[in-house]
Amino acid sequence: MKTIQVEQKKETLIIVLNRPEFRNAVNFEMMDELRKVLDQAKQSSQIKTIIFTGVERSFSSGGDLGQFHQLKSKDEVKPMLEKMGKVITQIVNLGKPTIAYVNGYALGGGAELAMACDFRFISNQAKMGFIQINLGVTSGWGGGTLLLEKLGRTKALSLLLTGDILNNEQILQYEIALKEVSSFDEVLLFADKINSHSLESLQAYIDLANGVRDGRTFVENQKKEIESCSTLWESVEHERAVDEFLQKNK
């Protein structure tokens, strides 16, 4: 692949945005490659967790304006927005835990991509900003909605309406990221801890979280919990774990 690097470590798939000369800006080719890899990751029983990051000192600077600025009319730009919007939707509805390691700049569409993930870890060089308003437009891939969902109206609008760029300390203050880490290895350790559990239990919790996001009632989600717990109760993993627990506590 030309615009991304893909590596599997144990049960974690690492997707590295790889256009360093453009600060890992998203172009049409990257959209196609991301869609293909995400389709494969969703179907694979050997992959439990997906990590996104970028080469060198950028996560992603957003959309490739050198390419996209050639789109002048609404009719021309809308298909591009919808195309990347589908990638964001893929990530949001992947059904497996997703992590963004923001190792540098995540601006505009890059911030939208990071917000699509379940977790965000940052380096001390991280900078994030929904800078679209500074260019006379809004977010266009769904990231504004995700920011509002995760931060609430007041905090999210304070970023969307100003176009401010946050440094690493401010990202943590806004509770956009879970943690600042000193190396990528710490992110991998977090993924490994998740991966120590069965894929079925991970998917059940992701589905539960998606249900809350999508407005399922308490009773509807409670039924989901009962169904998933009772199904997993008869699994080999559950029986083994209970046996080990009982042996330790004799």
From TrEMBL:
Q: Which CDD domains match?
A: crotonase-like (cd06558)
Judged by the first EC level, this protein's enzyme class is: lyase
Q: Per the record, what are the reactions this protein catalyses?
A: (2R)-ethylmalonyl-CoA + H(+) = butanoyl-CoA + CO2; (S)-methylmalonyl-CoA + H(+) = propanoyl-CoA + CO2; (2S)-ethylmalonyl-CoA + H(+) = butanoyl-CoA + CO2
Subcellular location field = Cytoplasm, Cytosol
Extract the GO molecular function terms from the UniProt entry: methyl/ethyl malonyl-CoA decarboxylase activity
**Coiled coil segments of this chain:** none
Primary location recorded for the protein, binned into one broad class: cytoplasm
- GO terms (BP aspect): fatty acid beta-oxidation
Q: Which domain of life is it from?
A: Bacteria
InterPro entries in UniProt = ClpP/crotonase-like_dom_sf, Enoyl-CoA_hyd/isom_CS, Enoyl-CoA_hydra/iso
Q: GO CC: one term? A: cytosol
* Enzyme Commission (EC) number: 4.1.1.94
Record's keyword terms, sorted: Cytoplasm, Lyase
> PANTHER family under this entry?
ENOYL-COA HYDRATASE-RELATED, ETHYLMALONYL-COA DECARBOXYLASE
The family annotation for this protein states:
Belongs to the enoyl-CoA hydratase/isomerase family.
Q: What does the function comment of this entry state?
A: Decarboxylates ethylmalonyl-CoA, a potentially toxic metabolite, to form butyryl-CoA, suggesting it might be involved in metabolite proofreading. Acts preferentially on (S)-ethylmalonyl-CoA but also has some activity on the (R)-isomer. Also has methylmalonyl-CoA decarboxylase activity at lower level.
- Spell out the protein name for this chain: Ethylmalonyl-CoA decarboxylase
Organism listed in the record? Tepidibacillus fermentans
